[in-house]
Each structure stands twice: as C-alpha cells, then as structure tokens.
Fold:
Amino acid sequence: MSTYAQKKGFGATLWDYLTTVDHKKIAILYLIAGGFFFILGGLEALFIRIQLAVPNNDFVSAGFYNEILTMHGTTMIFLAAMPLVFAFMNAVMPLQIGARDVAFPFLNSLGFWLFFFGGVFLNLSWFLGGAPDAGWTSYASLAMASETHGIDFYALGLQISGAGTLIGGINFLVTIINMRAPGMTYMRMPMFTWATFVTSALILFAFPPLTVGLFLMIFDRMFGSNFFDVANGGNTIIWEHLFWIFGHPEVYILILPAFGIFSEIFAIFSRKRLFGYSSMVFATVLIGFLGFMVWAHHMFTTGLGPIANAIFAVATMAIAVPTGIKIFNWMFTMWGGSIKFTTPMLWAVAFIPSFVAGGVTGVMLASAAADYQYHDSYFVVAHFHYVIVGGVVFALFAGAHLYWPKMFGTMLNETLGKVTFWLFLFGFHLTFFIQHFLGLMGMPRRIFTFLPGQGLATGNLISSIGAIFMAIATIVLLINVIMTQVKNEKVGNDPWGDGRTLEWAISSPPPFYNFKQLPLVRGLDAYWLEKMEGKKEMTPAEPLGDIHMPNNSFVPFVISLGLFIAAFGAMYRADTSWGLLVLILGMAVTLGAMFVRSIKDDHGFHIHKEDLMDDDNDKGAKA
Amino acid sequence: MANQQPSSGNPRVDVEYRRKKSAEEMRYQIVSFALMIFLTLVAFVAVGYDGFSDWFTVPFILLLAVIQVIFQLYYFMHMSHKGHEAPALFLYSGVVVGAVTILAFTTIIWW
Structure:
C-alpha cells in the first residue's frame, strides 16, 4: 500500500475522521470539538458579563441567567478544558514515549465519540425546553426541585461523556505502562508524559464517584427513587460528597497536564534541561495523591464539624508545598537559560504570577474559619478563574501554539500569537482581579443582577470590559488558525529548533504509523541528547520490519449514537408513551454494535517492510 | 519468564528448574485452595450457629471475605510474581480512595 498523500474528496475525509482510530486524528477531533465547546462556553461567559455590566440590567431574565451560568461552568470544565487537554495528550504523549499508537486505538475512538455525543446531548437542552439551571455542581437540594428537563440533560449527558473520559484515561495508563520505547524508563519520561500518567490515574479513581452520583440523580429524577429526597429518608449531602470526591481531583486532572505543557515549554525555550526533574515527578505524584484527601474543603459551611474542617483545611494547605516546588523549578529552569520569548514561552512566563495569585487565594480559602466569610462570594469566583484560566487556559493556548506544527505541519503566525497573548493577558487580569474585591465587598456569586448604590457597579463594569479583551484575543487566534491553514506552509521535524523530546524527532505531522523503527532512548530529553552528540536522527532500537496497524472502525460512533438515543428515551419515559421504546431501541443499537465488535474478528493489517523502504527519504525517525 | 512453559521448545529453558518451580507453585495453589474452602465452611458455620450475635457474624465474614480476596489475587492471579507492581499499585490506590470515601460517608455525613 502507498503511504503517499492523496487528494481526497470531502466525503472521504469526513468518513476517514468518523472511523479513524489513529491517535493523531483523534487528537484533531478532540481539538475541534473542544474548541467548538470552548467558544460556546465563552459566549455564555460574555452573556454573563453583559448582564452584570450595569446595575439592574434586564439583558436576560433571572431564570435564563441561571441556565447560562450553569452551562458556562459545565461546558468549560467537561466539554472544553477536558477534551482540549485530551487533544494534546493524544497528539503528543504516544510520540513522546516512542509508541506507534495508544494501547487500545478502538477504545480511543470510542472515548472521543462518547464525549462528543454526551456534549451534544447536553447542549441540545437549549432547544428542548431549557438548559440545566442548578450550577455546574448541581447540588441535589436545588437540582431535585428544577422543573424543566434541564437537570436530566445534565445527568444523562455527563454520564455519557464521563464514560468516554474514563475510557480515555485507562487507555493512556496502559499506553504509558506498556508501550514505552526501548530505554525509556519511568524516570526518563518527559514531564508531559508524567503529567498524562498521573492525570489518567486521577481520572481512573475520580470518575467512578461521579458516575455513581449521576446514576443516583438519574434514578431520583427519572425512575422514582429517593436517594436525595429528604422527605423519604434520603440525604442531599450524599450528592455533595460524591460530586466533590470527583470534583476536586477533577481540577487536578485539568491543571496537571497544564503543568506538563509548561514544563516542556520552559525547558525548550530556555534551552536547558528542566531543573529538578525528579522533584517535578515527585511533586506531580504528590499533588495527585493529596488531590483525593481534600474534597471537603468545598463544603466547609455544610456543617461537617470543626474536626473534619480542620483536617481538610490542613490537607488543602499541604498541596501548596508540591505546587511551590514546581513553581521554583520552573523559575530555576529559566535562570541562566538562553531564553527565547516565543508565543508559548510568553504564555508560560505569564502563567507563573497569574497561577501563583490563584494559589495564594486558594490557601486563603483553605482556612476553614476565614472561608465562612469568602464562601459563595465573588472572591471564590476570582480564585477559581485565576487557577483555571491563569493555569489551564493559558496552557491550552500555549500548547496550541507549541504543538500546532506537530499536529498540522504548519506554524501559527508568531505576531498574531503575541497579539492574542497580550490581549488575553490584559483582559484576563482586568476581568478577574477586581472580582476579588467585589467578593470581599459582599457580592454573592451566581446572582443575576445587583442594585445601583451598592458600590458594585464600577467593579462589575471593569470586569465586563476585560471580558471583551479576552473575546477579541480568541477571535485573533481563530483568524490566525484560518490564515495558517490557508497559507499551508509546511515545516520540518523540529520547527522550534530546540525540541528536546522524541516528538520533535519525527516529521510534522508524523506518518500514520509514527516511528518507522522504534527509537532507542538513551536518557532524559532523548532527542536533545542525540543532537548534542552531532547526530541527525534517533538510533533505531530494532531492525526495519512489518508494522501491524489497526483497521478503521465505524463501530465506536454507533455505540455512542445508541447511548445518545437511549438518553432521550430515559428522559421522556415518564411523560410520553414512546420514551420507553426509544430507551430500549437506543440500548439495542449500543449493545448490538458491541456484539458485532465482539464476534467479528478484526486482525488489522500490516505495512510491509518493502513499502516502508520505498519512501526512505520520509523516514519515521529522522531528525 | 514466570509463566513460560517447560514444553515451550525454547532451548534456554532450564526444564529441571521450571519443573521444580511449577511443583512449588502447584503446592501453594492447593494449600490456598484448601484454606479457601475451609474459610468458606467457617463462614457458613458462623452464620448458621445461633450462639453468635449479628454484631460478631457480619464483621467476621467480611474479614474472611477480605482474606479470600487476597488469596485469590496473590495465589490464583499470580500477583505474588514479579511484573505485577503496576497492577498492585493501582489496586492499592483504589483501595485507599475507596476506604477514604467509606470512612467519610460513615463519619461526617449525618443521617
């Protein structure tokens, strides 16, 4: 078979992406879907800021504001940040460890389509009678009372997309444990791979509690059970615990890959080995471990009692220690380095003070006694936007610029990249810094309007103006993306010139089988090591041989589609006659597709040695 | 290496050593199998005997169940062998997370 690129029609390309099991294409799917939901969540954020720009505004009604606010949080966390993080993990991690693909390519595709259909289902609520309106945490005491189908959309949609995330996490774990190239020991893995590893472990342990919580909510709302119904002996606090046992590790699931991306950037653009690599690994693992011991700090005011509050307060403050280790390591990596201020590096440098500001307010919130004052105020809103935007979103922007050439083979325009950066940085601080003070002045979070003369008008107006800058920055990035795609100037393996890890040793984008011969890894920063010894390419660890590849499959799409249909059935079962039928039909589609997958042998195919030798000037592992 | 068969045809396999190892392995399995049957009988007796209160029986048979799980994992699923460090790490991490959850639910959630 030929590995030469052929012009394909739109239909063929679409079919290729619908059926692909290639980690690089799935990464692009995650990037597109995550980017779409990011823009959607961003629009919701703008509506929030427009509504709050002036006192007594009636841009949206109170009920609709609740829906926008809920969907902004839910969309940004589950449908934008997580898939965008997954996009980079999929695109980069298998290349960084010198693997041909992830361990289970079929499951990788299934994970994406489950996430996608879950996200679409959740957002269809806008058109089908109202979106969820109980906040992204959807506390049961409020959610059970919600009259529309919104909460049903929330519970079913997140259940479907959560299953996809769990599948993805397990897949990454197995890949990293089993598929590292010869010589790639655990302590030679790039930081981003370590971050992916710990993140995936967190997903493995954090998502089951969410699944349980969501099932309890689904049963309560749609099938007449009483887990959260106090009048019937239930307890709404169960939901809060289950949600935060998931929810707190979730924020580390988001921030650890961000730390990984920044670790790569600091090393690449300081042209120095990452300072304190082993302490970075230790800190990452420690953050992952402590992440499970602190969830109740979200519930200090629930009435846990002083002993529980004290334990969780101390545990929470302990997390500042490994995080501090990381911050200092990044600064020492830059210290004495030959720094190049590219767009990714700008994001990375700006990340340090922004994230530290969020971390410091985090420690303030961790003191249980003080938290009674901050709780449910805009101070909390400012805190988590400083860590999530200043940490995760900065990393996603930085990662997009850094890995764009590896994913698409073209470089994003640096000037426009820097314009995006400065606009976004300025807008971000303008929007959220003032919110600390709004909170301390007593503005509660989640209110839809405020009155004139309460001293909140100026602060909110400034905050809204900041949001416009962030919107313009995102538009500039979109223009940049379109311009780059239209120009389509292909770049070489290592477009930044200072790549250190294996992904920069392979062409951009890599051939569909990745490395023609698995590379031999001789130390940390394997590619840099070879470059420093004057070599142009990685030493192969194996003779050239046939490569076994998986076949494309449409089954993951069908399995996910079945659950999507079934979710409608579950939701309308109580009020319509056809609901139960649709539920059964949807489950039949899913189980049928799984059955087909089980009984049909799919051995994949081989790329033969002779074909690989044909295009020798396009070697997988060339430098 | 641990599960390489003596009949694999690999000339580098030390057949004598493999035989000895397999016999040893077999002995462990039979001993733990006998113990598991014995523990199951004990569990039945504990439930059937009227002299014990439920406050003794329930924790007692749960304890027996935990012992059986350990036997199952270590002797029948070969977790005692080399090369099972990663599964062991994740199993124990899961146990810790689950235990913390149960601890929290039984202590700080009021009913």
